[in-house]
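Q: Got a minute? One more chain.
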Amino acid sequence: MQNHLKYLLILTVLIGSFSIYNYIIYTSKTAYQTVHLTEKAIKGENIWLQHNCSSCHQIYGLGGYLGPDITNVYSREGKGEKYIKAIVNSGIKTMPQFNFSEEEKDQLVQFFKEIDQTGYYPDVNAKISKDGWVTIKNKQHENGK
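A: Always. Here it is, folded:
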């Protein structure tokens, strides 16, 4: 009977510790800010979702691996607005050809532009401290936002 109480006490302490830890983690302020997309960018995101673009492409490394990561496609050298519009309408290699209207292309470009402003991927300047915390380079903080 005494072993039973001992295990119950240990289990209670573990559950309590886990609960306190989660409360601290999920209620503390971090360096990450909430990303607010404009209405135009949200429409671009909806196009992204409706056409299941994440099955082939990634944002911050999350998504499919058939196509490239598009986190910073807007600001990448040799890319940008005209490149994005040309690629989504003509397709390339295994990417299908989409017949988006100019308005839809503008919405997609705005979505990519606003994602691009949130940070870098891959973040080659990230610093990993001994406790495992990763400090990332954030474009919004660089631009004084």
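A: The beta strands are 58-59, 62-63, 127-128, 134-135.
Q: Perfect, thanks.
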